């Protein structure tokens, strides 16, 4: 069942004294951290409201309202509506396709509808892809049982099924990893684990690909719940109540830190002609993490940027849908339309069994054009020439060069990615 996850509001602290001539607060604005803090956000917002130069207007060409099926709240999204349950016939068809692919002796990079035949289920999956792109922006497939198969068979089944939803698979590392295992690392020698491989909570964000595909091999014992929020709903509420935040998000002066500790300036909100604006961001690339801070030369966010970034988190929490994950679920998200977050995993790293498989997908039939500012960061991961040699890790545990944030980033040679923060 879907349920609203609303932030608990605390009383505002006393506002700072204001200089009567310049209308500038006598103290600095509250800082912004990796973890969203409601009190700091509300205080900073109140301080900015007092400024006379805090104009309320949308950027030129941006709509007052986004009107698509992907605009929803926890009250209006029926999770059952986007849930597809695989029948026994569907499962047998998948199993037959796995056996057929293995018999072909082809490599995993060759997985496609042509090499993984699903004569009946394939049509349903194409409809799922259409719904993800033109409907609610998300889908859940239930009915698989990972315990019935080997790890290799699970990977073949997941990637083969996913090839009907997105015919292109994106790279997820500098070494060309196509498949990622997400789990809480037990390696105590790693002091800076990447966020997705730790027990830390993840604030709302989206991944740099069209479709995020996750296969739940095992859930956390406690915590780690997934939450989704409609980017269109967040935009509409901002446009109505705080349009100046949209203007800030659309400016190209956000200092993203890259793996080489260089700074890449990009907006957080993008718009193609004749399409609704959409968000593409990860909070940690802008704030750093306590275990992996930004470099000393990376600029701090302005008060307006900190306010806009926190507004995204605040509104996402306000309208979020909590998704009850079950073992065997496949979760599919359109990153143009839906933000996602994960609560802190309360299992200890020594006992946590949480394990998901992740693919980054693009559907060349239904996918939307990639804006120029995002082509290097988003579009190049789908370079077909490089993906012919994509790397597939079958065993659950990645080596330390993939788990450690600093080691992961050290393998990149360009500044067109957010690396371990992304």
From TrEMBL:
Q: What UniProt keywords are attached to this protein's entry? A: Oxidoreductase
Q: Pfam families, per this entry?
A: TauD (PF02668)
User: Is ATP-binding one of the keywords?
Assistant: no
Under InterPro entries, the record lists: AlphaKG_dependent_hydroxylases (IPR050411), TauD-like_sf (IPR042098), TauD/TfdA-like (IPR003819)
Q: Which domain of life is it from?
A: Eukaryota
Domain TauD/TfdA-like intervals: 115-359
- Provide the protein name: TauD/TfdA-like domain-containing protein
Report the source organism: Apiospora rasikravindrae
């Amino acid at each position: 069942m879907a349920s609203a996850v609303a932030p608990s509001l605390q009383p505002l602290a006393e506002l700072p004294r204001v200089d009567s001539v310049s209308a500038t607060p006598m103290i600095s604005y509250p800082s912004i951290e990796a973890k969203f803090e409601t009190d700091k956000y509300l205080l900073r917002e109140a301080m900015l409201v007092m400024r006379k130069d805090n104009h309320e207007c949308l950027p030129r060409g941006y709509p007052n309202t986004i009107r698509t099926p992907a605009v929803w709240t926890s009250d209006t999204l029926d999770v059952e509506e986007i849930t597809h349950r695989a029948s026994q016939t569907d499962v047998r068809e998948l199993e037959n396709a796995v056996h057929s692919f293995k018999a072909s002796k082809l490599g995993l990079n060759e997985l496609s509808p042509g090499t993984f035949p699903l004569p009946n289920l394939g049509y349903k999956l194409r409809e799922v892809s259409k719904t993800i792109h033109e409907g609610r922006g998300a889908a859940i497939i239930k009915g698989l049982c990972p315990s019935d198969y080997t790890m290799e068979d699970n990977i073949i089944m997941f990637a083969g099924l996913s090839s009907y939803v997105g015919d292109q698979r994106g790279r997820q590392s500098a070494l060309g990893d196509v498949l990622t295992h997400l789990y809480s690392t037990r390696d105590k020698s790693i002091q800076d684990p990447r966020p997705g491989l730790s027990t830390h909570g993840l604030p709302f964000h989206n991944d740099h690909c069209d479709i995020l595909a996750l296969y739940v091999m095992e859930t956390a014992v406690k915590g780690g719940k997934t939450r989704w929020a409609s980017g269109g709903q967040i935009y509409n509420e901002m446009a109505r109540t705080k349009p100046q935040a949209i203007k800030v998000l659309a400016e190209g002066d956000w200092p993203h830190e890259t793996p080489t500790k260089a700074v890449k300036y990009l907006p957080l909100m993008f718009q193609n002609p004749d399409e609704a604006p959409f968000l593409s961001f990860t909070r940690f690339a802008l704030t750093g993490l306590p275990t992996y801070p930004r470099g000393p030369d990376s600029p701090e966010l302005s008060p307006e940027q900190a306010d806009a970034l926190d507004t995204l988190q605040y509104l996402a929490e306000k309208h979020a849908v909590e998704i009850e994950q079950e073992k065997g679920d496949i979760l599919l998200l359109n990153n143009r339309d839906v933000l996602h977050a994960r609560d802190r995993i309360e299992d200890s790293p020594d006992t946590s069994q949480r394990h998901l498989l992740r693919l980054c997908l693009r559907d060349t039939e239904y996918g939307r054009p990639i804006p120029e500012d995002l082509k290097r960061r988003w579009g190049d991961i789908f370079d077909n020439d490089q993906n012919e040699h994509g790397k597939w890790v079958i065993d659950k545990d990645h080596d330390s060069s993939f788990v450690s944030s600093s080691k992961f980033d050290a393998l990149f040679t360009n500044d067109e990615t957010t690396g371990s923060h992304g």
